[in-house]
Design a protein that fits this description.
Length: 294
């Protein structure tokens, strides 16, 4: 092979490879011309002692390597920029997911707390209702026991003294007058109102609140509590009742319920949350005793 022949590069040509090939071709042509001229010269001509430095493969490879390095650097920069962009997007996505998870957890905690509070409220209401029903059942049982005892006492009294019964009938048909009339009228005007523990009117009452207000309508001040009211005045027999008398259940100094006798064998009282303020016959719930303040 001629030393001026074109030597292909073992690397993939880059953008500058065409220029290098052109330069190598021009150099090869010049050298070929010189060689032909030398061969055509006189035979006795002196040999050429001057050497011409030719382009080497190394110089060609150096140019190609530089281009490759530049291209590789550009690709690396692009790749790094792409990696940074992807990392940024990934970080933003993770932050958004964390915020949404935190928000969802807070909402779940709020709902759980609300459900817990609602369950506690319903449980408290159920317990309060059960306690109220238990107390009312105890009161009914106590009144039934008192009524049974009083019925037995009344029966024995009637068998020994028929005059008492006649006096009782007269008192039950007696019409109220004066302060008693005001008290009875006020009590009857509240029939149908609601029963509320601690109620003092004008549309809801408990037993002692109604008795206190009824007497206040006649200008008479009474204590607020039932056992205090039944401890006042003079004790009277259930066979000798008059309108305006205070009826009580339990012992006189420890009564748990009071009402107002309105005549005709009836009384008005704020019984309980189920009945409210009602007018009832003595036989419906026989009182333990009565006191008179008028």
């Amino acid at each position: 092979m001629s030393h001026t022949a074109h030597i292909p590069s073992h690397r993939k040509p880059r953008r500058s490879a065409s220029k290098l090939a052109l330069r190598a071709g021009v150099a090869g042509g010049v050298l070929g011309t010189i060689a032909v001229a030398g061969a055509a010269g006189p035979a006795n001509a002196e040999p050429v002692t001057e050497t011409i430095e030719m382009p080497t493969l190394g110089s060609l490879e150096a140019g190609s390597g530089l281009a490759s390095a530049v291209a590789a650097s550009a690709e690396a920069s692009q790749q790094e920029a792409l990696d940074q962009s992807l990392q940024t997007q990934e970080n933003l996505a993770l932050q958004k997911a964390a915020k949404e998870a935190k928000k969802a957890r807070a909402e779940a905690d709020r709902k759980a707390a609300a459900e817990k509070a609602e369950k506690a409220r319903l449980k408290a209401e159920a317990e309060a209702k059960a306690e109220q029903e238990r107390k009312e059942a105890q009161e009914r049982a106590s009144r039934t026991s008192e009524r049974t005892q009083l019925t037995s006492t009344s029966a024995s009294g009637n068998s020994s003294d028929s005059g008492s019964s006649a006096g009782s009938d007269e008192s039950q048909t007696q019409a109220p007058s004066g302060s008693a009339a005001s008290i009875v009228a006020f009590a009857r005007a509240q029939v149908g109102d609601a029963y509320v523990t601690g109620g003092t009117g004008p549309n809801s009452w408990d037993c002692s609140g109604l008795v206190q207000a009824a007497y206040a309508s006649a200008g008479i001040d009474l204590p607020r509590i039932s056992y205090q009211q039944s401890s006042m005045g003079t004790s009277v027999s259930l066979d000798n009742l008059q309108p305006g008398d205070i009826l009580y259940w339990g012992s006189r100094s420890g009564s748990y319920h009071v009402a107002i006798y309105v005549g005709g064998g009836k009384y008005v009282g704020a019984q309980n949350s189920s009945t409210g303020v009602v007018e009832r016959s003595l036989d419906w719930d026989m009182p333990s005793g009565a006191v008179r303040l008028l």
